[in-house]
Amino acid sequence: MSLKIIESSDRFMRFSVSEINPSIANALRRTIMDDIPKLAIDKVIFHHGQIRDNEGNVYDSSLPLFDEIVAHRLALVPLITDPKMNFREECSCKGEGCPLCTMSYSINRIGPGLVTSADLQPLGNPELVPSDLEIPIVKLGPKQAILVTAEARMGRGSEHAKWCVTSGVAYKYHREYVVKKSEIENWQNFKDKCPGSVISENDKEIRFTDDYGCTLLYQLLDNPNVERFEDPTTYIFQFETDGSYKAIDVLEYALKRLPQRLNTLLDSLVVQD
Amino acid sequence: MMIPVRCFSCGRVIASDYQKFNQKIKEIRSDGREPTPQEISAIMDDLGLKRYCCRRMVLSHTDLIDEILPFS
User: Fold this and answer.
1) DSSP string, A153-207
2) Looking at beta carbons, which residues of chain B come within 8 Å of A240?
């Protein structure tokens, strides 16, 4: 088994894994999808009643949206995560909530105006801010204000979508297209548009691969004159993250996590004698 | 109401893209014309809205928060 990173940026990654079978490929995909721990807001406390600013103006804390909707929107905001934080149920505080497993945030804004994720102030580690600062949470009218404290805890995507780090996790076989130059007249067009996707070329034929994400090559899929080869042992994966981790960190964690879970399964299958 | 924070189908954060999308559409409209489908498509590509699930979230949304704001 060998892994090659084809394309990598902060929030997107494409890589190939060879010499595996579909069950391993799918296990890796599902680990990346919903088994990465991350921070998300889990408890929101709304201050109800009158709110006064420094000049003595009185604001009302009732919002145009229901509190439940605001809490749900806050939960879905992606937060930059410290992977060393504990799960609450595994923490030394035994689930009561301490700085090792809980991160607190507050919002204090007076209207009119749009409350965004940038107003979410971390109380504690100042690095754990939302990874996207332009998410609108709620709009405040004149004489309206919001005063909220929120608690974030670690969780996994299998529990709730707010703990999903990645989106668009997909894999496909490594695929090659053999284009005979005599039969496909515009082969030069494909070569010019996708120069990185050419594997080999001689006088009679040219061989492309769609591993590198050149979507123009999909036109060759339905062409009966193009011979296609698929390699069911080599997989091209791609995924993007919501910014709570870098893409490379997600992959590294998933590759560590998968054997751990398989070992747990293996241990439970051992017959005691 | 307000734009959903994440795409319903894939979970990508799309709420911040909606603001940028609207801003660019507004810029085109300030020239006194409607944006062409090709321009709309190019704007969404630039924002990284690759899948059609995320594109429909942004494209089909109507922001009605200003309508309900006076009644809260």
Assistant:
1) EEE-TTT-GGG--EEEEEEEEEEEEEEETTT-TTHHHHHHH-GGGEEEE-SSEEE
2) 12
